[in-house]
Amino acid sequence: MSKSLQAIRGMNDILPEQTPVWRYFEGTVSRLLDNYGYKQIRMPIVEFTELFKRSIGEVTDIVEKEMYTFDDRNGDSLTLRPEGTAACVRAVLEHGITGGGQVQKLWYIGPMFRHERPQKGRYRQFHQIGLEVFNLDGPDIDAELIIMTWRLWGELGIRDAVKLELNSLGTSESRGRYREALVEYLSAHHDKLDEDSQRRLKTNPLRVLDTKNADTQAVLVDAPKMADYLDDESRAHFEGLKSRLDAVGIPYVLNPKLVRGLDYYSKTVFEWVTDKLGAQGTVCAGGRYDGLVEQMGGKPTPGVGFAMGIERLVLLLETLEQIPEEISRQVDVYLCAFGEEAELAGLALAERVRDQLPNLRLQVNAGAGSFKSQFKKADKSGALYALILGDDEMAQQVVGFKPLRGQGEQQSIAWDALAAHLATCVVQG
């Protein structure tokens, strides 16, 4: 017997009952970004593998263990994008839209791919909304990104469930000096480090700082601190960021162990974390990457950005029960028609109402059926009201109007007055 077809592990279907929450979240974010002057860019989901090796770093976990990489028919090595920043930088370089110091404030949305162990809130195909800003090098734009996310959490009703963590990684030069000091310290305690940290000590020692191993964390208590190695420029930049967040009233926690998992970060790094989702607590993260564009072949171009995980934020909204009631309702009004003549009149009436109320969610019964069966479908749809067209209504050119979610008697509404009546009732409902 042949094996039944199913989705790849860690790559999930988003079913019709789930998509309203996704659309609500995505719509809230896109409106907010429009209001702040950001423009959407759309990149392919497949890029040349070399792009991610050059940008993310060949000794990162993503490149070493997590990328979906394959050779195409031309023999080129291609990779499903594991993150969006590198692809966005490639796009702006290819099309020259950051040349001459042009400021670009961009955002994108779409699936990313990493071969990780699937668990709650973490999947092999996951979705992100990301922002990238080019040719602005001051702390003011870093602050704007964080302020936007703070406003978003407020609109979504989840501010009390998230916490902002901040750090500065300095310039590549100051980070290099810190790396040397950290390696020297950790090497002296090599036998006390967990196996993964011992490996990272040789390849990406800053990643040892965010280990979850308790024994290694104990070793790190007396390790050198990045703040002691910051150059004056990075220190001033970080103070400028903090003063702006203080001015707006956004609380934050300084986390000297926050380093992010990608090689290209410099100066500001930040994460929004929550303790409401178990171990997978980061819902939005980013920072500054002033050397990345040059590293990828462009002219020196400051950059800063972040990405937020849609799956985790949707899960957080559901966990905190912060989904507006009307989001789960996909139908406002359900029209029931009995008999062919009523069905034809109902179609015409529905289209006239849609002309007058383009935002009304009006569903017309399909498949005929008895009075009982149509009303059962109307109720199952979640509609607030049912419209009824039968022989009596046809003779009087009225439509029956019956509330389905609460008090109220059925009444008759003239066809010409229906749109105005629905506008009042649905808004009030």
UniProtKB/TrEMBL annotation:
It holds the Pfam family tRNA-synt_His. Keywords: Aminoacyl-tRNA synthetase, ATP-binding, Cytoplasm, Ligase, Nucleotide-binding, Protein biosynthesis. It catalyses: tRNA(His) + L-histidine + ATP = L-histidyl-tRNA(His) + AMP + diphosphate + H(+). GO terms for molecular function: ATP binding; histidine-tRNA ligase activity. Its main location: cytoplasm. The keyword Aminoacyl-tRNA synthetase applies. L-histidine binds at residues 83-85, 114, 128, 132, 260, 264-265. Its EC number is 6.1.1.21. GO terms for biological process: histidyl-tRNA aminoacylation. One of its GO terms (cellular component) is cytoplasm. Residues 1-358 form the Aminoacyl-transfer RNA synthetases class-II family profile domain. Gene3D superfamilies: Anticodon-binding domain, Bira Bifunctional Protein, Domain 2. It is found in: Cytoplasm. InterPro entries: aa-tRNA-synth_II, aa-tRNA-synth_II/BPL/LPL, Anticodon-bd, Anticodon-bd_dom_sf, His-tRNA-ligase, HisRS-like_core, HisRS/HisZ, HisRS_anticodon. The keyword Ligase applies. NCBIfam families: hisS. Belongs to the class-II aminoacyl-tRNA synthetase family. Homodimer. This is Histidine--tRNA ligase.
